[in-house]
Design a protein that fits this description.
Number of helices: 10
Number of strands: 18
Shape: extended
């Protein structure tokens, strides 16, 4: 299956951005992506993340016969596998041109540079030697597989431990790890590849190109170098011509990048060694981040608070406590007879003055005032033969205070009381 090519618009956009010294991921032209190096629970297993590119390297060993040309030297074998899991452009069981290129580059960079002491791998000269095998598996392809594979391969070799052996005549006894401690490999130096991509016939230069940037580039140059400024390999590919000054410029940049990556590998090796020595947890499972929705626990974090922050927090707590106390102490305020209000209230926001509000409240209080008195009024004298009953009238306090005369009202049976004026007329 072929990889999806870029459109003309995407190519023009990337090249135009390079002219403005900008990249798709926001990096500078000479910046690497984030490098993460982790080691597995077994010795010689290393995984390197270069941005989204992931490479896993595994080192193994076995006893074999030496080569006839070098009977006292061990064998270093490197195998690179590009699986369809990394990219749809890779096929199963068929080595692509990129896979062949990476395999040859790693062999030249690691084996021909003599970074590993192969003479220390000899058991019996001309008969038995150790064969060290490095399997490099590309798990995800997002550009610059060569650099990521070289980091994983050299880190796995430095992390690997071979079993100790004892020679008794022509018999070789291999001791397991519980009997004798395994022996590390003799790594003299750490050669690391640095890839440079060129655009517009060498006008623009980038370090650590991504997958999209590799599809647009005119060519690339790979420099294999160690921190001692020794060039182990150099390869130029593509349709471009480079000047001598450009090659020297790239070599100076590679020195800085190789030094930083070498320090990172050594720091990762030391951290793994300390974790194994102190009995701490190690391996791929422990190196993965735990901040996900699938985890049921989270490590506590310490927060360092300054004195000013603590004072502010205490003042806020005091203010909250004071507000609670005032709310608890609040009582019902009586504005007028029969009218009350709970809470402190506040200023009117409806455009009505306080005096008008109080007057309205007092009027409502007078209207809704439930204080009434029942007053019985009996008339003096004879009321006639028609009616001898007493009239019951409901009076308000104002009417009682004014002492106005009470007029007769109809009773429930429909009879009327006679007024005093009619009495005078009869007399």
């Amino acid at each position: 299956m072929r990889d999806t090519p870029l459109s003309a618009c995407e190519k023009n956009f990337i090249i135009k951005a390079l002219g403005d010294r900008k990249r798709l991921d926001g990096r500078q032209p000479y910046d690497y992506r984030k490098v993460k190096i982790t080691f597995g629970a077994d010795r010689g297993c290393c995984k390197v993340n270069l941005g989204q590119t992931q490479v896993l390297a595994q080192v193994s060993c076995e006893i074999t016969s030496p080569r006839a040309v070098r009977p006292s030297d061990g064998v270093l074998f490197i195998n690179v596998e590009l699986s369809p899991m990394a990219s749809p452009a890779f096929e199963v069981g068929r080595m692509s041109d990129l896979g062949v290129e990476i395999n040859r580059l790693l062999e030249r960079c690691l084996r021909e540079s003599r970074c590993l002491d192969t003479e220390s791998l000899c058991i019996i000269s001309g008969e038995k030697v150790w064969q060290i095998r490095v399997d490099v598996n590309v798990m995800n392809h997002d550009g610059n597989i060569i650099d990521c594979s070289s980091m994983a391969a050299i880190a796995a070799l430095a992390h690997f431990r071979r079993p100790d052996v004892t020679v008794d005549g022509s018999e070789v006894i291999v001791h397991p790890s519980d009997e004798k401690d395994p022996i590390p490999l003799s790594v003299h130096h750490m050669p690391i590849c640095v890839t440079f991509s060129f655009y517009e016939q060498g006008k623009y230069l980038l370090v650590d190109p991504t997958d999209k940037e590799e599809k647009v580039m005119d060519g690339k140059m790979v420099i294999g170098m160690n921190k001692h400024r020794e060039i182990c390999t150099l390869q130029v590919s593509g349709e471009m011509l480079l000047m001598k000054d450009q090659v020297l410029r790239c070599s100076n940049i590679a020195v800085v990048k190789v030094t930083e990556i070498t320090e990172l590998i050594q720091r990762a090796l030391e951290n793994d060694r300390q974790a194994r020595l102190n009995g701490k947890k190690f391996g791929f499972a422990e190196s993965e981040p735990t901040e996900s929705i699938l985890t049921n626990q989270q490590e506590p974090e310490e927060i360092q608070a300054t004195e000013t922050q603590m004072d502010e927090d205490s003042e806020e707590e005091k203010g909250m406590n004071g507000d609670l106390k005032t709310e608890r102490k609040s009582k019902v305020k009586i504005l007028d007879k029969g009218v009350g209000m709970i809470g402190e209230g506040g200023a009117s926001t409806w455009g009505v003055e306080d005096n008008e509000m109080t007057e309205e409240l007092q009027k409502e209080a007078k209207v809704t005032q439930p204080d009434h008195k029942e007053v019985t009024h009996t008339t003096d004298g004879n009321l006639g033969d028609d009616s001898e009953e007493e009239g019951t009238v409901m009076l308000n306090l104002d009417q009682v205070c004014d002492e106005k005369p009470v007029k007769g009202k109809k009773t429930q049976q429909g009879q009327k009381t006679k007024s005093t004026k009619k009495k005078k007329g009869k007399t």
